[in-house]
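just leaving the lab so this will be short. what follows is a protein written twice so to speak, once as letters and once as structure tokens for the fold. can you read through it and tell me how you think this chain folds. anything you notice is useful, everything is just below:
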Amino acid sequence: MMTHSRKFILSAVLSSAIVLGLSGCAAALVGATAVGISAATDTRSVGTQLDDQTIEIRTITALKGESRLENSRIKVTSFNRSILLLGQVSDSSMRDLATHLVRNVEGVQRVHNELQVAPVISFGQISKDTYITSKVKAKFVTDETVKAAEIKVVTENAEVALMGIVTREVADHAIEITRNTNDVKRVIDAFEIRR
């Protein structure tokens, strides 16, 4: 008997095959299959995942449309209608402006503003952040308490933010794992705690 996850993945692959047949684009097959697999392992409903993608795009558009923020670096992540802002802004008024703009985006229920008043980070640091994220994710995959698919990991300037809907025990354990990962300067708890 086929599980819901397998049915979803099969549906995504079949839909992709149709798109491939119509467009002749191999990238469509790979991309749609990856989305199907990701959606099947995510703890959010497919509807919530789609809402989060829409909210993220709306938020990025709102921030990019504000000329006063053009010298800032703002990374936007949406999870379960919560927006996480990471990056660098020129002063605290720009940080407040970003919060104001995001709160007015349709669908946003919570804002975690972790923007720092600091110079924009270098490309070298961005690359290092990607590596830190991969190290944290790898630790989650091999841990028995944490389900890697339940936690979104985002790193900016060696500060690692964790998002997901988990129990307090899992959240604390994931934070401890992250804190003990080389090169992590700070852990940001953006979890929603499941009762």
